[in-house]
Every structure is written in C-alpha cells, then in structure tokens.
C-alpha cells in the first residue's frame, strides 16, 4: 500500500514529501495509522549521513504513536483501535541470548525502525515520518496514557527509554545524586524520570536560558557547565551521570564530578569522537565510563507504564511535516523546548 511520507533522497538534500510502500500485514503484523512522530537528534545524524551507512531514500522517525488499523490473523496482543507506539526497532533475531533476555536492543540482528535491513521495498526500513507503518507485534508497545496526551507520549519511545534504561540499570533512586548532562530531548526526559524515581537530580546545561526550565522539569539543582566555579563546587558529589550531549566535548569535566565508584553513562552519540578522557580521572576514584543504547521491548513497556502511572510526558512543540527542515536547524541551535513532534495528519497536504 502506498502512503505519504517525508524524507530525503541524499545527505545534502532537504527532506521532502514522497510516496512510500508499506507491506500488507502478515500473520503477526500490526498495521498502525501514525498520529504523531517525535523528532530525535538521531534522525538528523542519520538523514545527513553524519553516522556511517545511511541508505536513501531515508525516511527517519522512531518515536511513533498511533492507532491500530489492521492486524494479522495470528496477532493476539493488539486489536483494531488500540493506541500503540513503536520505538527505535522493528525486528531482531528473536532467539539469541539478548533477545531471550528482552534486550533486543543489543541483538546483533536488531533492525532499526529506519535504515535497517528488510525484505520490504526499497530494501531498508523507512521510519515514522509517514502516515502508516506495519510492524511485527513483538515490537509494538501499548500506550496507556489518556488519548489527549498522545502527541506528548511519542518522545517517550526513544528519548524516554534511552534515559530510563541507564537510570534503572545504574539504580537511580532515593539516596542517589544523579546528574543529567544536556537538557535537550533526551535530557529533559532524563530529568523528569530521575526525579520520579526519587533521586536527587542535578541538571547540567550550556544554556543559561534553560536554568528555570530545568527546575520546572524537576531538577533540584541546575549547573551552567560553562561556569568553572559552579562545576568545581560539584566535584565528587554525583553517583551517576547520564550524558546526552550530541557533540564532542571534554568528558573529564564531568568525570571529576563523580564520587568514588560513580559512573558516567554516555548516551549522546556525536558523529566525531570526544577528546580522550584522562585515565587518572578514572583510576583515582575507581570511576567508570559506560554507554547505553535505547532499551529492550519489555523495559520500554515498563517505562511507558511508569510514565502513565506518574503522569509523565514530554514537553513538545508540534510541527507540520513541511516544517521539518527548519526544525532540524532549530534543534542544532538548541532552540527546542524540548522535542518537536510531527502531526502526521499534515503529511496528506504536504
Ligand atoms: P537534542 O535535543 O539536540 O539535545 C542535545 C543537547 O545537548 C542540547 O539540547 C544541548 O543541551 C546539548 N548540546 C548540544 N551541543 C552541545 C555542545 N556542542 N556542547 C555542549 N552541549 C551541547 O538531542 P537529543 O535528541 O536529545 O539526542 C542527544 C544525542 O543522543 C544525539 O547524539 C542522539 O543521536 C543520541 N541518542 C542516542 C541514543 C542511544 O540509544 N544511546 C538514543 C537516542 C539519541 P544544553 O543546551 O542543555 O547544553
Ligand atoms: Zn532517537
Ligand atoms: Zn537476537
């Protein structure tokens, strides 16, 4: 079936309206009419080929919410009309140790929602900047938030799970002091989630203008990282740092802030490497530097349920599909509070 989408034909071309084909739902497939799709910085990295291996045409989008419009004969988890979400993956090998542990995000055969291998035309997956998507039921999530919050739920599918997973894995909670670095799409969710988990939350931003916002999002303290005195005052005070920054920067400035046995988890994925961290910063206090990639399907459902229970959604700015190129420029300028979400109804007119 042919549906409207928005994507790019080359790294140096703007995104434009295009028609794409979706497969007819197979026995275990769920067909979803997309209502909204969040705009992740990874969409921009990919569509502009800042990371290696982008295939064109490239239709980004992996923060998808919508309503089930058709199901295959063997689908038992979902029925027509259900509110559902799709995040960063649409398939995996389903039988390796990672898949069996519900950590499909670490499966070598994980298929990304866009730019992943698929037998479907055109040979790679096309993402959520489109009217419709067809996904195996195993990779579909249930949305339990009230329907009027649906647009603001979309960013949970990537920004939410990517911060929730390391916060849970490294046990953010009461008695722990957690730093969130970079108050963008991921970071603003990290602040909300760490706060809801009961941690003492310190937000680190390069933008003085985000100070009051970060407090409103739930940060107990806000540090403008360009202020060396403010940074020095936080030395050896944090148990955990989740670093969401999308550009290379000096990691030592943050490693310094960890207590003994503290961990900094990198989730930001800049296109070029960070300057190498200073080994002495790590060995002096037995500190760890780690990474984390999105989250598995069961944990993503757990995160959605946690957010529904705690009334957590993203702070969003809704855009039309034809505003996406301008939105990318604003994202690069740090001018989004805090996630753009495409209203998929505008694809028909685009
Ligand atoms: P975003 O909305 O653009 O936020 C990034 C934030 O980083 C900015 O708001 C800014 O915060 C800070 N920042 C940007 N450039 C900076 C610089 N040069 N120096 C210092 N701080 C800077 O992006 P996002 O959607 O949250 O994504 C963040 C990164 O995570 C991207 O690289 C993305 O690809 C990656 N990502 C990774 C995963 C994963 O699974 N690990 C999943 C999703 C996304 P302040 O203004 O507060 O400083
Ligand atoms: Zn993402
Ligand atoms: Zn697997």
Word description of this protein:
By secondary structure, this protein is an alpha/beta fold. It has two domains: 2-158 and 295-346, Quinone Oxidoreductase, Chain A, domain 1 (Alpha-Beta Complex); 160-291, Rossmann fold (3-Layer(aba) Sandwich). It has helices at residues 41-47, 97-100, 150-153, 159-169, 185-196, 211-217, 228-233, 252-255, 279-283, 297-310, 324-332, and strands spanning 2-7, 16-21, 29-38, 64-71, 83-86, 89-91, 111-112, 132-136, 141-142, 177-181, 200-205, 221-224, 238-243, 258-266, 288-291, 316-319, 339-343. Strands 3, 4, 5, 8, 9, 16 and 17 form a seven-stranded mixed β-sheet that branches. The model has no long low-confidence stretch (mean pLDDT 97). The structure holds NADP nicotinamide-adenine-dinucleotide phosphate and zinc ion (2 copies). Residues 40, 42, 62, 88, 158 line the site of one zinc ion. One zinc ion (ZN) binds at residues 92-93, 96, 98-99, 107, 109.
Walk me through the topology.
Blueprint: E1 2-7, E2 16-21, E3 29-38, H1 41-47, E4 64-71, E5 83-86, E6 89-91, H2 97-100, E7 111-112, E8 132-136, E9 141-142, H3 150-153, H4 159-169, E10 177-181, H5 185-196, E11 200-205, H6 211-217, E12 221-224, H7 228-233, E13 238-243, H8 252-255, E14 258-266, H9 279-283, E15 288-291, H10 297-310, E16 316-319, H11 324-332, E17 339-343
Parallel strand pairs: 10-11, 10-13, 11-12, 13-14, 14-15, 16-17
Antiparallel strand pairs: 1-2, 3-4, 3-8, 3-17, 4-5, 5-9, 6-7
The structure holds NADP nicotinamide-adenine-dinucleotide phosphate and zinc ion (ZN) (2 copies).
Report the CATH C-level class of the largest domain.
Alpha Beta
Shape: globular
Bound molecules: NADP nicotinamide-adenine-dinucleotide phosphate, zinc ion
Helical stretch count?
A: 11
Percent in strands: 25-35%
What is the total domain count?
Answer: 2
Question: What is the H level of CATH, i.e. the homologous superfamily of the largest domain?
Answer: Medium-chain alcohol dehydrogenases, catalytic domain
